[in-house]
Amino acid sequence: MSLTIRLHITTTNAGNRQVIREISNNKTAVLPRSIKIHENPLSSLVYRRKMLKNITTKVIKSSLIEPDGGSLVDLVVPENERASKISEAGSLPKVMVTKIDLEWVHVLSEGWASPLRGFMRENEYLRSLHFNCLRLEDGSFVNMSLPIVLAIDDETKERIGSSPDVGLVKTNGDLIGILRRVEIYKHNKEERVARTWGTTVPGLPYVEEVITPAGNWLIGGDLEVLKEMKYEDGLDHYRLSPRQLRREFDRRGADAVFAFQLRNPVHNGHALLMNDTRRRLLEMGYKNPVLLLHPLGGFTKPDDVPLDVRMEQHSKVLEDGILNPETTVVAIFPSPMHYAGPTEVQWHAKARINAGANFYIVGRDPAGMGHPTEKRDLYDPDHGKKVLSMAPGLEKLNILPFRVAAYDTSAKKMAFFDPSRARDFLFISGTKMRNYARNGDNPPDGFMCPGGWQVLVKYYESLQAEDSKQQSAVLSV
């Protein structure tokens, strides 16, 4: 299967230059309905963007594409200014931030949301909410599909009064930053939920956890973070900033970087997709494509596998040689998860631009979930990858849809689905995988590396032991 890639440089009427790519594939597959994360129907490997006028062709040469806005934002206060800033923050009106607010502080401070320099003021919020992008001073646009905002209640608003600056504190009272030149505006929760998720149905995890209990006001401003974010959970060495990731790609001599995000354990189908992507990039002429395996590290819903377990499982995948450690960088993406489907997947892709990736792998129903009250997907499974192919501000990122991987019962391994012998393939959903582990059953040989599978089995055994302990405690009472 051959694959070609071209960049098209176009000049718009406004004189702004935009980079648009065209990647075509000479083979089309018709595929069945598939499981949530990795078994999505595809018609081609990479999407074709609509071509504009005045087109010339150039070849992609560098993986480290320019970050949005031209340079990475770094909002951490320099060490030589830290003492004075801490003193100043202590004298300001205080805004308390939640655990998930802290995750957004982390995202902002390292430049994942570049060129955004703090929690959104009202104009930025409205542009993000209604247009999924921000307009820069030169008239160009960058993608920003999720509002990054900080909510406060009536009492906090009253306490701030007319102060232009506020101090940000954790629930334990520790100072974490300053918000400058603040603007306070109404938090219309219903509008925010409806436009972000496309529904106001009850049971949306992020809404229930974050938005519903939040205050009636939003406060925006320029953010200064007093020190680098650390979690002290044994995983901080995985939390590489966009700047650190770019340095690592440079160190490895990467001439292409392809990013793969997931919030589930890596099975051999995922590995097949990642390894096949690298093979195709090599066939296209790249000398050293590097994989950014980038699991989401912020808020997830309770039934998702916890981050520490996922990271241990990912480590086993590399130890067992399923993925090559020499051409794979494993790092944690600190963003919270919204489960907002086509709206959220734009944010996931945009953030990887700032980390230096010029290819982004997208699957079936990215950032999606089951409908909270009905037995169906909340979003059309194909809309995420279609939206990415046309989203404003993502033109310089090459979108790589998944090929469908399933368990080949004849070959006894994960393989790309062959419609000519569909009966030979077994689709193992995330739910089925978790049930295997929960019940102590083994999946078919070749589904996941043994070391990685044992990590999951151990995790679910610990859950069952804890449940039994709690039940015994209740009975004893």
Automatic annotation (TrEMBL):
Pfam families recorded: ATP-sulfurylase, PUA_2
Residue span(s) of domain Sulphate adenylyltransferase catalytic: 237-459
Cellular component aspect of the GO annotation: chloroplast
Localization per record: Plastid, Chloroplast
Catalytic activity: sulfate + ATP + H(+) = adenosine 5'-phosphosulfate + diphosphate
Domain spans labelled ATP-sulfurylase PUA-like: 65-227
UniProt xrefs under InterPro entries: ATP-Sase_PUA-like_dom, PUA-like_sf, Rossmann-like_a/b/a_fold, Sulfurylase_cat_dom, Sulphate_adenylyltransferase
Enzyme Commission designation: 2.7.7.4
SUPFAM superfamilies registered for this protein in UniProt: Nucleotidylyl transferase (SSF52374), PUA domain-like (SSF88697)
Pathway as given in its UniProt record: Sulfur metabolism; hydrogen sulfide biosynthesis; sulfite from sulfate: step 1/3
Domain of life assignment: Eukaryota
Record's keyword terms, sorted: ATP-binding, Chloroplast, Nucleotide-binding, Nucleotidyltransferase, Plastid, Transferase, Transit peptide
Keyword ATP-binding (UniProt): yes
One term of GO molecular function: adenylylsulfate kinase activity
GO term, biological process aspect, one: sulfate assimilation
Record-linked PANTHER family: ATP SULFURYLASE 2, BIFUNCTIONAL 3'-PHOSPHOADENOSINE 5'-PHOSPHOSULFATE SYNTHASE
Protein family according to the UniProt entry: Belongs to the sulfate adenylyltransferase family.
Record-linked NCBIfam families: sopT
This protein's name: sulfate adenylyltransferase
